[in-house]
Structure formats: structure tokens, C-alpha cells
């Protein structure tokens, strides 16, 4: 059986020790489109030497940033073909501003295995600390595996965010680059779904798609720039569900509603009649 929830749920994966440099942060920010306005002071915060500002979304990739092999979906109680898997959701909460360089240790557990009938959802939760034991961030993510349901697990709750029934407080378009996925894959995600046309076609897509975590970071950065004065330190947390694919070169339309300390967000693809890209998006402000 590819998924055995009695083994998977609660399983702790091997701890990862990792490090990152200011150059890694710069590359990550460039992978999100930083530098598109190369003389703008706010934009240059993301690429300054030695101390580039760090978005909380960097925490989602920091432990695997230097990987050069395609990922494997092989955990205790879980064995799934990579071609069947897409990213389902992602959340990062920072407990202190992420420094522009450092060393850390991440521990990940499988916390849920949901049976959606024709598909399965595997949920992981990770905590990252520096080497002195100070908590840096907590991340929660899910993968959606087509054709892997029917193992008898619980269906899982609905975690949808209801957007206000009014005009958004802000709306802006964010273009992506045709080569965006090829650049972003240097941030540690070498899944051929994002670079190999034949692999993408075998997985059911007409062309390689943009990494979900790239879209996730792009939207967080765009909201930070447009509403928070390009100050990443004001972002406490960011979560989203991946509602559809984005192809490199397409333009995202981001809509934002203010709700106290939270910004409620939607992101859709302009090029395909506002096809959903991210849903249930919440940015929490410090």
C-alpha cells in the first residue's frame, strides 16, 4: 500500500542541519522577481550585499536550498510517484526575523494523511531552530497526490478563508518571467515538472509549470512591497492553498482585503481569464 496512515501519522523524519548565506537569500529573492525595478530603494533591499532583507517565505526553502537532486516522496508509510504529486498548501510563521545568513536544524513530522477518494493529502509540520536552540520558524505544508486515495483515512477538514463581499482594498498585477521556473529551481527544487517538457506532459500538463512555492513567494513579496513599504520584517506569517497552476511568463492579479492584523488575499492568472492560482491566502502583520 503506497500510504499507510497507521505508520505515517506521527512519524518523525530525520532531522536536517542546514546553513544559508546572504548570497542564497539574494538568489531566492531574484527567483521571486526582485530587481525588476533596479533603481528602486525598496526593491534594492532584497539584493544588497551582506544583508539582504529576508522574506518569511524563505523559511519554506532554506533547509533544502542546496539540494541538486529531484525530491522523492518517500516517508514512513508513504511511497508515491513524484509525477503524481503537486504542492497543496504552505504556511510559514516566523518567531524572530530570519537573519540574512546562519545555520539551523529542522525537524519534520507527518501530522495528517487525508483520503480525498481519488487523491490523498499528506500534511507535514516542521520547526527550525538555530544551533543555540532558538526557534526561528514553524512551517506547515501539504502535498496532493492524484490517484493515491482510497486507503481508508479521514477526509480531512475544510480550511477555506472567506473573502469579504466588498471591493478589495488593493489590487495589482504581477508579471512572471518566461524563465522564472528555470531560475527558481536553483533555490533547491529540481523537480523536472518545472523544467522538462516531456516530464510535464507525462504528468498531465501542456508545459512545465511554475513552482507553487515560487508563486507563494511572489505573492508575499508583492503584497509586502505594495502595502507594507517593502519591509519584510512586518510579515509575521504567510499561508496559502495552491488552487491552480501558473505557467512561467503569465501575469498574476493580486487582490487584498485588510482585516485587522491580517491581510486576506487572492491571486489569479490574468492570461487565463483569472484562473485561480492561490486561494485561502492570509498574511499576518507584526
Automatic annotation (TrEMBL):
Residue intervals of the MaoC-like domain: 163-263
List every stretch annotated Disordered.
148-170
Q: Where is the Peroxisomal multifunctional enzyme type 2-like N-terminal domain?
A: 18-147
Pfam families for this protein: MaoC_dehydratas (PF01575), MFE-2_hydrat-2_N (PF22622)
**Which family does the similarity line name?**
Belongs to the enoyl-CoA hydratase/isomerase family.
Protein name, UniProt field:
MaoC/PaaZ C-terminal domain-containing protein
Natural source organism: Rhodococcus chondri
Amino acid at each position: 500500500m503506497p500510504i499507510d496512515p497507521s505508520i505515517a501519522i506521527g512519524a518523525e523524519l530525520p532531522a536536517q542541519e542546514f546553513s544559508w548565506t546572504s548570497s542564497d537569500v539574494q538568489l531566492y529573492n531574484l527567483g521571486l522577481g526582485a530587481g525588476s525595478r533596479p533603481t528602486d530603494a525598496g526593491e534594492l533591499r532584497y539584493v544588497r550585499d551582506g544583508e539582504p532583507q529576508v522574506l518569511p517565505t524563505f523559511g519554506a526553502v532554506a533547509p533544502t536550498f542546496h539540494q541538486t537532486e529531484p525530491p522523492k516522496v518517500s516517508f514512513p508509510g508513504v511511497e508515491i510517484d513524484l509525477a503524481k504529486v503537486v504542492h497543496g498548501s504552505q504556511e510559514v510563521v516566523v518567531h524572530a526575523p530570519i537573519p540574512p545568513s546562519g545555520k539551523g536544524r529542522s525537524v519534520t513530522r507527518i501530522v495528517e494523511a487525508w483520503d480525498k477518494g481519488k487523491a490523498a493529502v499528506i500534511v507535514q509540520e516542521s520547526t527550525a531552530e538555530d544551533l543555540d536552540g532558538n526557534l526561528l520558524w514553524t512551517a506547515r505544508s501539504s502535498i496532493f497526490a492524484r490517484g493515491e486515495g482510497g486507503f481508508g483515512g479521514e477526509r480531512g477538514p475544510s480550511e477555506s478563508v472567506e473573502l469579504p463581499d466588498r471591493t478589495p482594498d488593493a489590487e495589482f498585477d504581477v508579471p512572471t518571467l518566461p524563465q522564472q521556473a528555470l531560475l527558481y529551481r536553483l533555490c533547491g527544487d529540481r523537480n523536472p515538472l518545472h523544467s522538462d517538457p516531456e516530464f510535464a506532459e507525462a504528468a498531465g500538463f501542456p508545459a512545465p509549470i511554475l513552482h507553487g512555492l515560487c508563486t507563494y513567494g511572489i505573492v508575499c513579496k508583492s503584497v509586502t512591497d505594495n502595502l507594507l513599504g517593502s519591509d519584510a520584517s512586518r510579515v509575521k506569517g504567510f499561508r496559502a492553498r495552491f488552487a491552480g497552476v501558473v505557467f512561467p511568463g503569465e501575469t498574476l492579479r493580486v487582490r487584498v482585503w485588510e482585516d485587522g492584523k491580517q491581510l486576506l488575499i487572492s491571486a489569479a492568472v490574468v492570461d487565463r481569464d483569472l484562473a485561480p492560482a492561490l486561494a485561502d491566502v492570509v498574511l499576518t502583520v507584526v
